[in-house]
Amino acid sequence: MAKFTVMLPAAGKGDRFGGSEKKTFAKLDGRPVFMRSIEIFLNRDDVQQIILAVAPEDVSQVKSQYGANLGFMGVKLVEGGSRRVDTVRAALAAVAADCEYVAVHDAVRPCVAADWVDAVFAEAQKTGAAILACPLNGTIKRVGDSKVIDETVPRTGLCEAQTPQAFRKTVLIDAYSKLGDALAEHVTDDAEVVELSGHPVSIVISDASNLKITTRGDLTLAAAVLKSRPPKAVRKLGAFEEAQW
Fold first, then answer.
1. Which phi and psi (to 5°) does residue 28 adopt?
2. Is the dihedral of CA 214, 215, 219, 224 positive or negative?
3. Where are the alpha helices (DSSP H) in 179-216?
4. Which of 145, 202, 233, 243 could make an SS bond with 127 (beta carbons 3.0 to 4.6 A apart)?
5. Residue 178 and residue 190: Cα distance in Å, rounded?
6. d(C-alpha 96, C-alpha 5), whole Å
7. What is the reported pTM?
8. Which CATH number does the domain 4-244 belong to among 3.90.550.10, 3.30.70.1730, 2.60.40.10, 3.30.565.10?
9. Alpha helices in the chain (DSSP H)
10. In this structure, are residues 225 and 31 in contact, taking their beta carbons and an 8 Å threshold?
11. Over residues 156-175, mean pLDDT
12. φ, ψ of residue 152 in degrees (nearest 5)
């Protein structure tokens, strides 16, 4: 069985979320969003390592409030950077030497189903690079700064990229080694970094329920998605861990 390291970037500012609390730490049905995302990968036999990368200003808070939990779960904490690419590079530097594959998953995307993780991991082993993606079904409008529609964009072949995004470790490392600073300012996901390196990226079809927490309203949607899923076996929290929430 191939072994994966799962990296969860959580160093973004999340300005659209609003309020003084970062969306990473917002509670989703009683537990922080980032912990919900970590739990997706905890009991998988093909995951050998989980890395959480947070903003420098959040390291102390994470250690004091959640350090015991992360330690118990075997999650490695690293300091991210000001840009997503810097955060992923920092996490890549902490990946185990014997790891074959790396998956990057948004720390604020807590609703991905296990079947989708299975599928994207399997596709990455076939092609070297694969992501979850949701086909766009609505009518797409390109809008200018004046908030007037410039054009209606044909939606044929358009998908919204999601995570996890899984790669052969050598493919992702090579792609980041080739990424220049000018392009690094504009890339928004790891698939684009790999695309720019010249390596093809496959997609595995998912749907909109694999949502990313962006605004406070998304917490309500995420809670509804999780409640709609069939019950599954999860690792029971010990008394000490339970108290930490």
1. -120, 105
2. negative
3. 181-184, 190-196
4. 202
5. 13
6. 8
7. 0.90
8. 3.90.550.10
9. 33-42, 59-73, 84-92, 114-127, 169-178, 181-184, 190-196, 217-228, 239-244
10. no
11. 97
12. -100, 125
Which tens digit of pLDDT belongs to each residue from 110-127?
999 999 999 999 999 999
Q: Check pLDDT > 90 for residue 15.
A: no
DSSP letter at 87? H
Q: Where are the domains of the chain?
A: 4-244
Query: So what's the pLDDT on residue 12?
Result: 80
Q: What share of the chain is helix, strand, coil (3-state, %, to 5)?
A: 40, 25, 35
- How many CA atoms lie less than 13 Å away from 63 in the CB half-sphere? 9
Say yes or no to pLDDT of 216 above 80: yes
Q: Closest by alpha carbon to 223, among 86, 31, 43?
A: 31
